[in-house]
Design a protein that fits this description.
Mean pLDDT: 89
Radius of gyration: 22 Å
Structural class: mainly alpha
Distance between the termini: 22 Å
Number of helices: 7
Strand order of the largest sheet: 1-2
Length: 174
């Protein structure tokens, strides 16, 4: 959408307005978002897998959870799950982090991961709730509303097969 102007018979490059418009509104392939999706999912897996065996103690009524809201005088702000439910939630979180990493049902996986990761972190303010977990929660939330599954994902591969598009010739093709 670049427009060029003619002044005294000479072509002048695109106007400042057109360049600014191209900068903000040019369509690009979301390779960066795909890298962030894969990286943040691996980081979440590195956090959730070691803690999975301690889920009953950290996040359920079977152990000693320390909800963040308790420090501010709201002991019943978030419901504390039973042991079996806490293990099920942590298993779902781990599965959704894996599926987000490979890009299968990307948007749903990231949405579920964002909600469960934030919820479980809020139930353990002593060891789990840290600066990186807050940043990870926000990044998962933002990725859930992006097109990060458009490239390098199972979703993109299935869409390409369904539409009958040719196989990409390189890793950078989408």
């Amino acid at each position: 959408m670049t427009t060029t102007a003619r002044i005294h018979g000479e072509e002048v490059g695109p106007s400042l307005r057109a360049r600014i418009g191209d900068f903000f509104f040019a369509e690009e392939t979301p390779f960066g978002l795909a890298v962030v999706r894969i990286g943040i999912s691996i980081a979440c897996l590195m956090v959730t897998l070691p803690r999975w065996i301690y889920t009953r103690e950290l996040y359920s009524t079977d152990g000693a959870p320390t909800p963040l809201a308790l420090n501010y005088g709201y002991p019943d702000l978030l419901p504390i799950p039973s042991g079996g439910l806490a293990v099920a939630l942590m298993t779902i979180l781990t599965f959704c982090c894996f599926t987000a990493c490979i890009g299968w049902c990307t948007r749903a996986s990231l949405s579920i991961s964002a909600v469960l990761y934030t919820y479980l972190n809020l139930l353990d303010s002593i060891s789990t709730m840290t600066k990186y977990s807050v940043i990870t929660s926000h990044v998962l939330f933002l990725l859930a509303f992006s097109h990060c599954g458009a490239v390098w994902s199972v979703d993109a591969w299935v869409r390409r097969k369904r539409l009958g598009l040719p196989r990409p010739s390189s890793l950078a093709d989408h």
